[in-house]
Amino acid sequence: MKKRHLLEVLSLIAPIFLGSCKDTSYEKISMTETPRVSTGITALPKTVKAPLDNASSKEKEALGRVLFFDPILSGGKDVACATCHHPQNGYAEFRDLSIGPNARGLGSKRKFNRENDIPFVKRNSQTIINSAFNGIDTYKRYDPEKAPMFWDDRVKSLENQALEPIKAFEEMRGHGFTETEILEVVVGRLRRIPEYRTLFEAAFQEENPITIENLGKAIASFERTLVTNNSRFDRYMRGESDAILLSEKEGFELFKSVGCVNCHNGPMFSDYQPHVLGVPQNGKLPTPDTGIQDSFQFRTPTLRNLRFTAPYMHNGSLPTLRQVLEFYEDIANGKERNPLVPKEQYDPFVRELNLSVKEMSLIISFLNTLNDDDFSKVLPEAVPSGLAVGGNIH
Asked: Which residues pair with 164 in a beta bridge?
């Protein structure tokens, strides 16, 4: 009886045991494979969404515009948002690493003052244009309240992003104030300026409207007006077949077939995911930038308006698009361009790239179809603080 009972028990558990072994093996195989993603590419939407608690209005946009250009927001009253995101430079900056307080000049001509102990901003200044669409997927779905921001995706939404540079020592804060107090200092300054009191009241129509939260909301409302959604490529994707040239169409097909589309997809040509690429270090930084949680991961940037955003990569270490493609060719072939990042750590998608020198010019031609200079380049004649428009940029 006991023997029969034991055989019955074994007959019941054997399929379970065997099934478990099979499932475990399958999981191990799956984990080593490159994850598949949706790589659809479409035109940008013709309209922009705003968070439910920050509906766009002409009054908010007008307020956000003057705030964006007013150095009153910086600790030393010498740096504005526009200092590193100037319309003359496509709301980006034509230099590898930004220079914040205690400096003068614009873009590549900006220099620290002679006596200086403030470091470079450690990452390349991304364009504000189309940041309203951050996080958009291949089906044109996105949530403006959860939009990923910065190279390391450390905050969500344009509202929160707008406040971070003000708090950063090397970006806008400088000496004299702590990170925890600077926003209250700035709000106090704004409350003492009659024109700002009027503008905030019109924009928010509430009692005591000049707050840290409304400061972020106003700047974000202005930034959502900076959209270029009618590039030649957008028109092509909407059915205008002759909007791009035959060579550019060939470049588009190569862009997809060689593997660029694995990470650069959707309407913004970004999967908004972190990847390890082993980008060369920038020698201006005293210590290496190790990215998200010291993993050397950085979020995929958009490929739109590359004409305005050179030099490239998170630290501006690659001056031209051709050098970017040559870098990808190198790492796809197992070469290491950053001694701190062994090739074993490279993102699996990198190993799938199949890029050759002869294809680069066609891909670059295609990328040029994503440029669109139809954005506002007009500067305010003055800002309510009476300070220099855009900060010390002359």
From this structure: none
Which pLDDT tens digit goes with each residue over 311-361? 999 999 999 999 999 999 999 998 999 999 999 999 999 888 988 888 999
**Cβ neighbours, 10 Å, residue 207:** 6
The residue segments making up the domain with residue 200 are 58-223
Q: Is 361 helix (H, G, I), strand (E, B) or coil?
A: helix
CB contact at 8 A, 329 and 321:
no
Are 187 and 248 part of one and the same domain? Answer: no
pLDDT given at position 357: 83
pLDDT higher than threshold 60 for residue 238: yes
Q: Which residues contact 154 (CB under 8 A, 6 or more apart)?
A: 164
Closest by CA position to 373, among listed 282, 287, 308: 308
pLDDT value of residue 356: 86
∠ CA 276-279-285, nearest 5°, is 115
User: Based on the structure, what is the number of domains in the chain?
Assistant: 2
Cα–Cα distance for residue pair 51/68, rounded to 1 Å: 20
Choose among 305, 256, 301: nearest CA to 274. 301
Both 201 and 251 in one domain: the answer is no
Structure tokens at 286: 């005293």
